[in-house]
Design brief:
The chain has 242 residues and is mainly α. The chain is 66% helix and 0% strand. The protein contains twelve helices and no strands.
Length: 242
Amino acid sequence: MFAKTYLRLLLASLVTGSAAQAASVGPPLICHPIDIGKAESLPFGDAKFAVRHDFPLERVHPEAMRFLDGSDDVLVHMETIRRAVIYLAEGESRSKKVGRVDLTRAFLADLDLRADEAARVEPGSTGAGSAALRIFDRAYAVEAFRQMGTKAEGNVEKGLEAAIARRPNDPALRFGVALATFGDHRGGKSRIFLENLQKALAGAEDPEGLLRKNLVSTVGAFLGCESYEALLGETRTRLARL
């Protein structure tokens, strides 16, 4: 199922962009693992889509929530959601055959509940930082499922903006917003993508840090930039053209 979905998405990208770019990029939130160092997430192999077949599908949802609730690291949230979406997409047809509940729907419903509760926390108030992550999780997951060809309801851009309003000075969150808005059919030229990318780059001060490394390995690859400096320059150039 996953292979068919990826092939369909790749063919669609060939219609809207160059063959070389489509082959190298793929769905941004799915095809590009986030390096989380030694942090914990759902069990996975070394390859991009290396799900563990000995890991029960019914454990994906509760385990993903455990990692999301237990970490304040945006990169961990991004990679945990990526892995959860891949697990659920691959196992969707198998789960229906054996009469299991719709695991994807249950996962999204839980994310919706968390985000709706978090939305009651006003920007600047106590708990706004944690609330931002819960709002971000829902928007990011909705976009990830869409990139896998799975129907998911929700206003992604509105959710991402609400997350940023509650955690505006987190460069990793800015990176997550930029990655989630890259594939919005404007080829990396939208203002929300570029402005958040610029702020993520500005905050990636550590040359050896995971944030800078992930920026170059994902968005850098999309824009043809092999270094942090090249990506920073390309971002400034694109913003100047808006």
